[in-house]
Amino acid sequence: MKKLISVALIVLALLSCLTACSFTQNMSGVLAGDAECTPKVEEMLSVLAENNTSDAKALMHPQSSDKSDAAIEQMSTYLAGREADSMELQNINVSTSTGTSGRTSQEQVSYRVNLSDGEVIYLNVVYLSNKDGTGFASFQIVLGVV
Questions:
Q1: What pLDDT digit, counting tens, does each position of 64-81 carry?
Q2: For residue 91, pLDDT beyond 80
Q3: What SS3 state is found at 117?
Q4: Of the four listed, 14, 79, 118, 126, which is most buried by Cβ atoms within 10 Å?
Q5: pLDDT digits over 96-141, tens only?
Q6: Which of 130, 114, 35, 39 is nearest to 82 (CA)?
């Protein structure tokens, strides 16, 4: 009987060691006021319109900043001084998880943006916060039908 209890305790100890604690929460369709990255999106559009690529690169997440240089240049050239008159939230998906590697929060957001010259563009944005830092993992200007 002692051996059976010992084996059961060892198995339980192994199972508890092999399972990682991870808590995940997803929210979709949250109201516009809950998009934490909205001020950062406005700031990014502003610095891109001013052709301030160094500030735009600083807003990128540390994991994606080295591969975003050409895209930032291209978006800055496209905007060419045109500011955003208004931004309307189209979609939001917030994902938060806590585990052995720390807390990770990711917002996937889509906006409809009216530029100062009357043109309408769409933004698809992924804003990431994790142990490496905070910033845009993805910032895309979408042209055409969405």
A1: 866 778 899 999 999 988
A2: yes
A3: coil
A4: 79
A5: 888 887 888 999 999 999 999 999 999 999 999 999 899 999 999 9
A6: 114
Structure tokens at 127: 């804003």
Question: What are the tens digits of pLDDT across the range 15-50?
Answer: 666 655 544 444 444 444 557 889 999 999 999 999
Alpha-carbon distance of 137 to 128, in angstroms, equals 6
Quote the CA–CA distance of 27 and 34 in Å, as a whole number. Answer: 11
Please give the Cα distance from 86 to 95 (Å, whole number). Answer: 26
Q: What angle do CA 101, 103, 108 make, to 5 degrees?
A: 120
| This prediction's pTM | 0.73
Cβ atoms within 10 A of the Cβ of 15, count? 9
Which amino acid does the sequence have at 2? K
For residue 146 the two structure tokens come to 């969405």
3-state secondary structure of 105: strand
Tell me the C-alpha distance between 28 and 30, whole Å: 6
